[in-house]
């Protein structure tokens, strides 16, 4: 799918992002005052709006477009201890040509792997539009010294990663050490070089919607190119409500700074029906500018197969079933 031209991004002075809200990160106290001054989240209202948007009816032509758009937004992911070069090569081939029987099917946005598999993934998608994303910073827990995290990032970038998916220090965030989290994101952004940076909050561990809103703004202030819900390794991952909240944050951040930031819900999105619901939320909350894989992604492993089966059903009128798609 075509991508839009990037919006302005935060410039950097000495590794620190600068933008219209730069003054709020001048000190720990100003950052805390800003984050705790954000409007409180009406949890009931947020969940009701997310549920309401999920009931929107999508007609056949629009559904076909939405399925292709969703395919183009998938970060096809394998993050298991049992990952092998062969599995990653197969994943890369599937990302490039999701349906070998239909050349009209779009490629996915990226494949997402551990740093030691980046070179293998890069070779597998060579010559295509598919990016290689790598988790880093002691994923998924993030429990490591900053020097170790930065070495993790630099290794992934040196191996050819186009995108870095970092995890924040949730312990520091929940303890109120916002400047520590901010400085770490800034340092990772600098270590990422030209690679786009996705900042993972692990929303299921942040406990409250207010914390998710604060984390969203903290990540964007520090220079995130994307804000991402989850690692997919905890019980609660992406939900319509937490994604809607993050979309509100990127919309409002662009209104104040002119900088557009992407959103990536990850974990638990398994069906075409779910994916289309998320696309409706994107359109109704942030707007059409985010309906593009440069600005919105799905972090998923099994979602792609369901999208392909639904695509085949729309094309042929028959439901092929899982035996007609490759096993990840």
Q: What would your notes on this structure say?
A:
The protein has 328 residues and is α/β, with parallel strands linked by helices. It is built from twelve helices and ten strands. Strands 9-8-7-6-5-4-3-10 form an eight-stranded parallel sheet. It has a two-stranded antiparallel sheet with strand order 1-2. The protein is globular, with a radius of gyration of 19 Å. The N terminus is likely disordered.
Per DSSP, the total helix count is 12
- Roughly how much helix do the residues carry, as a percent range? 40-55%
H and E order: EEHHHEHEHEHEHHEHEHEHEH
**How large, in whole angstroms, is the Cα Rg?**
19 Å
Instruction: Note the gap between the termini.
Output: 23 Å
Mean pLDDT: 92
Uncertain regions spanning at least 5 consecutive residues: 1-11
- How many strands, what sense, and barrel or not for the largest sheet? 8 strands, parallel
Instruction: Classify the beta-strand content into a percent band.
Output: 5-15%
* Form type: globular
Quantity of strands, as a count: 10
List the strand order in the largest sheet: 9-8-7-6-5-4-3-10
Judged by helices, strands and strand pairing, the structural class is: alpha/beta
Please outline the helices and strands.
Blueprint: E1 11-13, E2 16-18, H1 28-36, H2 43-53, H3 60-72, E3 74-77, H4 85-96, E4 110-113, H5 118-124, E5 131-136, H6 146-158, E6 163-167, H7 170-174, H8 178-192, E7 196-200, H9 209-221, E8 226-228, H10 240-257, E9 262-264, H11 272-285, E10 298-300, H12 303-316
Parallel strand pairs: 3-4, 3-10, 4-5, 5-6, 6-7, 7-8, 8-9
Antiparallel strand pairs: 1-2
